[in-house]
Amino acid sequence: MLPRFLEGVRFADFTWAGAGPFSTKLFSDFGADVVKIESRSRPDPVRVGGPFKDGRFGIDRSGYFASRNTRKKSLCMNMKNERSREILFDLIRKSDVVSNNFGPGAMERLGLGYEDVKAIKPDVIYLSMPMYGEDGPFANLVGVGMTISAVTGLMWQTGYAGEAPLGPGTHFPDHAANPYHAAFAVMAALRHRRATGRGLKIDLAQVESTINCMGLPFLEYATTGVERPRVGNRSPHHAPHGIFRCAGDDEWCAVAVMDDAQWPAFCAVIGASALAEDRSLDTAAGRLAAVDRIEKELSAWTMGRSAADVMGAMQARGVPAGVVATSRRLMERDERLAARGFWQTLDHPEIGPSRFTSPPYVLDGERVELLRPPLIGEHTESVLTGILGYGPDRIAELRAKGALE
User: Residues spanned by CATH 3.30.1540.10 within the chain?
Assistant: First the structure.
């Protein structure tokens, strides 16, 4: 397994829910000491939002929380308690990065805004991830991943022709654009600090970050004045290109003809001699003009065969195709993913042995070794003693004063 090349970097991590914890997980998995600050009175919403192992609720049983917080430490406290401030300030003094994804003003109200933190840790790297950034006309509007998908146009663009938008859910803002942009910015800031000795404030507006996923539609509209229509799984450049129903219960296969050389092979596979003999379909432009006709014949063929048979027949003739697999199918039946180390099994005190998705990158031929996520408050005493150097009397006093809960 990979060496943990980020060992020695510490986060005081105030992020919660989706994009924030996913961004700091990228650091914890590679060895950074990410101390997640939590509260039992106001837990991370994904701790209580599920899905839960075996459907049984528990604050330490959420699969969503578990997958986004591997290898982190959990420090549990009441941040509104006056005595908690001394703990947080001591932790910040021992940290390299302070991260949050609250709305503007939330950290300031806790006395933990950038200027407050900089006063006690001058070279701090401060990551802030509000929806619209910390200033501007929409700064005070707050939202979650679904909101960001809506305001950036991802919802509007995702759907079938002539039907209402469906949207991609929270996938792009919470699991693609924002976490990775934030991680890249923090890595650049760490490099900058190493070279100059100076810290930085990073104001990552999640809407601005996510809108990168919509670059082409915006560019097309800016240059042509034409709004890209919703087309489902169709392509503006290739036909056929889509997901087609197969025999069985909710079985589907993706099929795409990506160039003119694949077209005769495709026709031979489905036995469509009329399509093969129609010279108007020899080019992509001709096939796009006749996409309804082509898809009708393809669907009639796929519906009598299993998705695996469709994929096998197409691939055997060099036509791109793939079974549309559920998560369960990928985890239980895809031998290729298993062989590539797509997941790792970790034992967890509450949810037992469970599969966790490995980071998708391989460095020097190796994957990073995951460690299980924390139980809520699991590391409170070890952080206070091991990192902050508190003795048992001080910890007992903090508990008695209600700072640790």
Answer: 241-324
Q: Which of 174, 250, 259, 282 is catalytic?
A: 174
> What stretches in the chain show pLDDT beneath 50?
none
pLDDT digits 0-9 by tens, 221-258: 999 999 989 999 999 999 999 999 999 999 999 999 99
Q: What is residue 169's three-state secondary structure?
A: coil
Neighbours of 197 (CB within 10 A): 9
Distance CA 266, CA 178 (A): 39
* 241 vs 236: CA distance, rounded Å: 9
Q: With respect to CATH, is domain 241-324 assigned 3.30.1540.10?
A: yes
Asked: is 10-213+342-400 a CATH 3.30.450.30 domain? The reply is no
pLDDT digits over 59-117, tens only? 999 999 999 999 999 999 998 899 999 999 999 999 999 999 999 999 999 999 999 99
The Cα–Cα gap between 175 and 141 comes to 21
SS3 387: helix
174 is an active site residue: yes
- DSSP-assigned states of every residue in 289-326: HTHHHHHHHHHHHHTTS-HHHHHHHHHHTT--EEE---
- CATH 3.40.50.10540 range(s) for the chain read 10-213+342-400
